[in-house]
Specification:
By secondary structure, the chain is an alpha/beta fold. It has 2 domains: about 210 residues, Response regulator (Rossmann fold, 3-Layer(aba) Sandwich); about 120 residues, Rossmann fold, CATH 3.40.50.2300. It is built from 13 helices and 14 strands. The strands form 3 sheets. The chain has a 7-stranded mixed beta sheet with strand order 7-6-8-9-10-13-14, with helices on both faces. α2 runs parallel beside α11. The longest helix has 18 residues. The protein is globular, with a radius of gyration of 22 Å. It starts with a helix and ends with a strand.
């Protein structure tokens, strides 16, 4: 064999050795109180993975695929078991998810952190997640409810709403958001006439609605889940003619709620992470061109979460878990060339050449020191049976 042939063979062998099949876990509540939201979130995350694979540029031609698992959103033991299977049996390099704050905290503390696995949640918003001892392994592309509580308080204050009844799902998400909102609303001169937890999975919420209505408030803030207790509270309120004015947090935003409640939901207001800027529009267009409906809660955040993992793998030159962790902050923030939706090939090429990228994506990602975003919120109102964006805050 000539020296030239030997060099060619060596180069091909090296490229083959570098290329590998990389698995990313996608763990979301495919069953449970937000099951109508998670298929779109998963498809949006997988859109980024397919984009990276199709480029042929990831680690010398590696394919990256998703392995789905069900967090249930509410059952921490089941979520931990599902995550353990992803990490030990499926050997995923990283995790996109989880979704709800309680199961996300359980997975982080019991699976991801002990095993050195990076996880990026697109929708876990509990303020308590900012303070977990994560060794730089936990990130999120949805902002903390410490901010959502303030935004909700601002929306109500500006609309002249000064007295509300509040019900929240009895878990980390509901408690954290209720606390954040109550503090901000009271600081702005508002009154929370009653603040009461509700349990998901009940067939009848008449007793809870009776207690809320007895407070005398005319507006009911519902910090629950779109396919579970939150929906039940609203329906029971309408059935009893107890409330007709509803304030919804992000867990309540979804087409399934409008389909279930109908025209009685018109006039309801709410908040949802996201924007109406060029990045958001670009994501909607890109998703549609690729057969994915990107117009839904936490879908842009899911695309961004998966895209960040792919870029961190490329920056590391490896799908080893520790190497991914070491590069997450670098690909999310300046300096570097900005990478938009649909530009993963560009980002992968820059990183392969030793350059730097600043991933912007669908939601204008910029991580703070603990790996989470400040984010923006859409102020929504239900008009003619649709959630419409009033403004972005």
């Amino acid at each position: 064999m000539s020296a030239a042939c030997a060099a060619t063979v060596l180069a091909l062998l090296s490229a083959t050795a570098l290329a590998e099949d990389i698995k990313i876990g996608v763990i979301l509540g495919f069953t449970g109180p937000i099951e109508s939201l998670t298929p779109g979130m998963a498809e949006s995350a997988e859109l980024a993975l397919k984009e990276a694979s199709a480029s042929g540029l990831l680690l010398g031609g590696s394919a990256v695929t998703s392995v789905r698992a069900d967090s249930t959103c509410v059952d921490s033991a089941a979520a931990v078991a599902a995550a353990e299977r992803l990490v030990t049996a499926d050997r995923v390099a990283a995790i996109m998810g989880a979704d709800c704050s309680g199961v996300t905290t359980a997975i982080a503390n019991n699976v991801a952190i002990p095993n050195g696995v990076v996880m990026v949640s697109p929708s876990a918003t509990s303020p308590a997640l900012s303070d977990i001892d994560d060794n730089g392994l936990f990130h999120r592309t949805a902002p903390s409810d410490a901010r959502q509580g303030q935004v909700l308080a601002d929306v109500l204050t500006e609309r002249g709403i000064k007295n509300v009844a509040l019900t929240y799902t009895n878990n980390d998400y509901g408690k954290g958001l209720a606390e954040s909102f109550t503090g901000a609303f009271k600081a702005a001169g508002g009154t929370v006439a009653i603040s009461a937890a509700h349990e998901d999975g009940k067939a009848d919420y008449a007793a809870e609605v009776g207690a809320l209505a007895a407070s005398g408030a005319k507006h009911l803030a519902v910090f629950g889940y779109v396919d579970q207790g939150g929906k039940g509270i609203i329906q029971a309120s309408l059935d009893a003619d107890a409330f007709s004015n509803f304030i919804l947090a992000d867990g309540m935003i979804g087409e399934s709620l409008i389909e279930a409640i109908g025209d009685d939901l018109n006039g309801s207001i709410g908040t949802l992470p996201g924007g109406a800027n060029d990045a958001a529009t670009r994501f909607l267009d890109y998703a549609e061109r690729n057969g994915v409906n990107g117009d839904g809660p936490f879908r842009g955040e899911s695309y961004d979460a998966a895209a960040l993992l792919v870029l961190a793998i490329q920056a590391a030159g490896s799908a080893e878990r520790a190497a991914i962790q070491s590069n997450m902050m670098a690909v999310a923030n300046a300096p570097g060339e900005e990478i938009a939706v649909g530009e993963l090939a560009k980002g992968l090429e820059i990183l392969a050449a030793g350059g730097e990228v600043n991933y912007v994506g669908a939601t204008n990602v910029e991580f703070n020191e603990v790996g989470e975003v400040f984010g923006s919120y859409k102020e929504l109102e239900v008009k003619n049976g649709k959630f419409e964006t009033v403004r972005v805050r």
